[in-house]
Write a sequence for this structure.
């Protein structure tokens, strides 16, 4: 069984992430989406809220497992015995950072490899923080995030 890990802050998950997951689903039998509290970022949704949203989005997809993990991804990988990481590339500018992370992860665990998928070009400029910024300005988000996420953003913002 071919398994892989797709980790990120997903604060919130966007159509760009979903595009990567859908592409990866045709190559892997099971994908663990791992929601990580990135300590260098101020959280908007709690980790549990992000997990609940992703769970709703993939309710009909048995190949998806949603979890959280605190610590190095390499430790999650060893714990689960899954040695493939999925990452998305949006533009050339992502490459240096991704290259560094992939090599560092492999340095930490020689078995751990990273597989890259190119995002659909319509999502090259997308990021979770841009989505949050647009939501604060009440912009139309229908191209960028699913309806469930639009509703959750509105709900969260309306409660300060
Ligand atoms: N479509 C749309 N947006 C995308 C995207 C895509 N395909 N791919 C990435 N993005 C966005 C993300 O939403 C994120 O936006 P934000 O900065 O506004 O939050 C931004 O691009 C950066 O994404 P990413 O590099 O995946 O950051 P992240 O915070 O989501 O995830 C981790 C980073 C969690 C994977 C990384 O920090 C990690 O591995 N942490 C665990 C600790 C560890 O092992 N560290 C050692 C690493 S060598």
């Amino acid at each position: 069984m071919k398994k892989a890990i797709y980790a990120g802050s997903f604060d919130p998950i966007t159509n760009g992430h979903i595009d990567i997951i859908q592409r990866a689903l045709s190559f892997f039998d099971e994908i663990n989406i791992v929601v990580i509290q990135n300590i260098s970022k101020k959280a908007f949704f709690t980790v549990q809220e992000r997990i609940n949203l992703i769970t709703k989005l993939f309710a009909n997809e048995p190949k998806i497992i949603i979890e959280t993990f605190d610590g190095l991804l390499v430790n999650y990988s060893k714990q689960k015995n899954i040695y493939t990481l999925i990452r998305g590339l949006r533009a050339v500018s992502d490459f240096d950072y991704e290259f560094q992370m992939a090599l560092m992860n492999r340095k930490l665990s020689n078995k751990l490899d990273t597989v890259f998928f190119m995002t659909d070009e319509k999502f090259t400029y997308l990021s979770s923080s841009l989505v949050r910024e647009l939501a604060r300005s009440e912009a139309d988000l229908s191209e960028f995030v699913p309806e469930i996420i639009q509703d959750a953003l509105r709900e969260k913002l309306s409660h300060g």
